[in-house]
Specification:
Elements (H helix, E strand, L loop, with lengths): L3 E3 L5 E2 L1 H15 L7 E9 L2 E8 L4 H13 L6 E5 L2 E4 L8 E3 L13 E6 L5 E12 L6 E7 L14 E3 L9 E2 L4 H4 L6 E3 L14
Parallel strand pairs: 6-7
Antiparallel strand pairs: 1-2, 1-10, 3-4, 3-9, 4-10, 5-6, 5-8, 8-9, 11-12, 11-13
Length: 208
């Protein structure tokens, strides 16, 4: 589950190949004006990854909202970024331990920097974000989805493609189920969640 699709041109590349491809493809297919700059971010965990174009004046709150809507949100859990040993949370009041997410990305990171985003501090999904490069000029949208991994091909224990995952057995081979094996699995329906293109698959009540 390492290949992904470029949404600028429609071609498919490996995880490593996509990082190189986006740089060249964006010059031809992603419109930017002459002001400011744009961050090319790769965000991922495990076999899931996405590439984003993020305007330099985008706030961490905007990036948090985007990640929640695309990949994470299930029950309104707390979240935070960690950048250069500083923690940025959704709390409006800054403390000696945490700062507010109400701050622009520009000035916080630069090319080559790696930082972290955590969602749900009970059943945590931790994403790694890397600034692949910094482009001259701003994109029209604050955040643009450039590429994403293909839908997961996770096998059921019987060998068929799993379409459901049991949240109680998500770390066992028996937790990934095709439609034929669901009836014999034995767990109640609320524990059965759809297999979706997200690192939150099988976590909490996430359904995509």
């Amino acid at each position: 589950m390492t290949d992904g699709k470029c949404f600028l041109c429609g071609d498919t590349y490996s995880s490593r190949g996509m990082s190189r491809h986006i740089g060249a493809c964006s010059k031809k297919n992603l419109e930017r004006d002459k002001k400011g700059k744009t961050f090319h971010l790769k965000v991922g965990v495990g076999g899931y990854w996405i590439h984003l174009a993020v305007k330099d004046d985008t706030k961490l709150t905007d990036l948090d909202d985007f990640l929640r809507e695309l990949w994470l949100e299930c029950c309104g859990h707390l979240s935070a970024f960690t950048i250069k040993k500083e923690t940025y949370s959704l709390d409006q009041m800054e403390t000696m331990w945490e700062k507010s997410m109400d701050v622009e990305l520009d000035g916080l990171v630069d090319e080559g920097d790696i930082f972290r985003h955590e969602y749900d501090f009970g059943n945590t999904t931790e994403l790694t974000l890397k600034v692949v490069s910094v482009w001259e000029g701003r994109t029209k949208e604050k955040i643009s989805l450039l590429a994403r991994t293909l839908d997961p091909e996770i096998p059921c224990a019987c060998g068929k493609k799993a379409t459901l995952v049991c949240s109680w057995h998500v770390f066992d081979e028996e937790g990934w189920l095709c439609e034929d094996c669901v009836e014999t699995h034995g767990c109640d329906e609320p524990a059965l969640l759809p297999v979706v293109n997200s690192p939150r698959t099988g976590a909490c009540g996430y359904v995509g």
